[in-house]
Specification:
six-stranded parallel β-sheet; Rossmann fold; 8 strands; two-stranded antiparallel sheet; HAD_2; phosphoglycolate phosphatase; alpha/beta; HAD-like_hydrolase_sf; 2 domains; single chain
Length: 219
């Protein structure tokens, strides 16, 4: 079976505002106020630790123990308001439905903890559109290691040789290279068309283009 594997944050949904809010809650608890702004959305798509690291760096010297101490608090803040400002990108639902109508399996492979990812896609109303969801803690490794990607394909009944990845970051690009599969990177994320610097097999300007693109890239 042909399979399209999606990243979640920054690919299917713009989750940056809720992620940044969770990180800023940690800094407010420490008495520093908000250390991150909407201009840091790209960092948000690289995960909670990346956001904390950036915020602490703006306060001066810090050590990883400070970051580690705040990470559980960040996850809790995020879980408490996971879909307050998060929105699916235009056309995402229609594109996934179209792929499934053409016989593709559709799955998610994300570096968000699996429990949070399951909660988010359920609240967004899209969980039934995906055969499998692999999170950061589903397996011992996470993207760009190939194992989570392989699991996302194989657990859906597909084969890696007949699959592709849709993502938005260098992590997704490296994952696709490790799996030796085509990669389409979205241009509606924070990097815009500058994401072309990663030399993916395709750039995706709008989800309307994805079904035909998948037909070309996955034989």
């Amino acid at each position: 079976m042909r399979t399209v594997v999606f990243d979640l944050d920054g690919t299917l949904a713009d989750t940056s505002a809720d992620l940044l809010a969770a990180a800023n809650a940690c800094f407010r608890d420490l008495g520093h106020g908000d250390m991150l702004t909407a201009a840091d959305s790209l960092t948000a798509f690289h995960g909670g630790r990346a956001m904390l690291r950036l915020g602490f760096s703006r306060l001066g010297p810090f050590d990883e123990a400070q970051l580690d101490a705040q990470y559980p608090r960040l996850l809790q803040c995020y879980a408490d308001a996971i879909d307050t400002q998060t929105r699916l990108y235009p056309g995402a639902i229609a594109a996934v439905e179209a792929l499934r109508g053409r016989g593709f399996a559709t799955t998610i492979c994300t570096n968000k903890p699996a429990g949070l990812a399951e909660t988010l896609v359920t609240r967004l109303g899209i969980r039934p559109l995906f055969d499998v969801l692999i999170g950061a803690d589903t397996l011992p490794t996470r993207k760009p290691d190939v194992a989570p990607y392989a699991a996302a394909v194989e657990r859906a009944g597909g084969s890696i040789a007949r699959s592709m990845l849709v993502g938005d970051t260098d992590t997704d690009r490296r994952t696709a290279r490790a799996a030796r599969v085509p990669c389409a990177l979205v241009t509606f994320g924070p990097e815009g068309r500058d994401i072309a610097r990663l030399d993916p097999e395709a750039l995706l300007d709008h989800f309307d283009d994805l079904p035909d693109l998948a037909e070309r890239l996955v034989r």
